[in-house]
Amino acid sequence: MSPVSHATSEPRGPGRWNIRFEIHVPHAYETVWPALTTADGLRGWLAAADVLERRLGGAVTLRWPNTGTTVSGQVTAWDAERVAEYTVAEHGRIRFHLEPVGTDSTVIRFLNERGGSEEDRLDCLAGWHDHFERLEAALAGHPTDWTAWTDARWAELRASYASFSRT
């Protein structure tokens, strides 16, 4: 069973919301941290980090190989091996908080604070869910082959999140 379950989202004012995931992965945080905080690690599941200054206030530029979308911003929190936070144009604040569980498991508490329409919110829920499934695969030694990417899984997740929103 995948450690990725459906996210929660909450409104934070007109056109603003928070998306949260809590992901339990069967990998030590020493393995998980580089996947969230290095160019090689991020490329395997999220985006190419064309710029990544790994320090508080450092510059960051992320480029999604599947869509070509590029966003820039800065590192807005950095606590080595515990918290990495990137605040970037269009995607808002993206925060990863790691908590080790024993010696071979990690909980990732994820927060994305951003704005947009209800359609954007559903797209984002599905997108992050898809990326966290890709993170699970990358941690297991199977990074994403972006040349073979399709939106089929994203579309399935998008429909699932839309059905939850109607209930």
What does this entry look like structurally?
- The chain is an alpha+beta fold and 167 residues long.
- The chain has a single domain (8-166), classed as Alpha-D-Glucose-1,6-Bisphosphate, Chain A, domain 4.
- It is 31% helix and 37% strand.
- The chain contains 4 helices and 8 strands; from the N terminus they run E-E-H-H-E-E-E-E-E-E-H-H.
- It has helices at 29-37, 39-43, 118-139, 152-166; strands spanning 8-11, 16-25, 48-52, 59-63, 70-79, 83-88, 92-101, 105-115.
- The protein has an 8-stranded antiparallel β-sheet with strand order 1-2-8-7-6-5-4-3.
- A hairpin with a 6-residue loop joins strand 4 (59-63) and strand 5.
- Helix 3 (118-139) packs across helix 4.
- The two termini are 25 Å apart.
- The model has no long low-confidence stretch (mean pLDDT 93).
Task: Give me the secondary-structure topology.
Layout: E1 8-11, E2 16-25, H1 29-37, H2 39-43, E3 48-52, E4 59-63, E5 70-79, E6 83-88, E7 92-101, E8 105-115, H3 118-139, H4 152-166
Antiparallel strand pairs: 1-2, 2-8, 3-4, 4-5, 5-6, 6-7, 7-8
What descriptive keywords fit this protein?
single chain, 167 residues, alpha+beta, Alpha-D-Glucose-1,6-Bisphosphate, Chain A, domain 4, 8-stranded antiparallel β-sheet, 4 helices, 8 strands
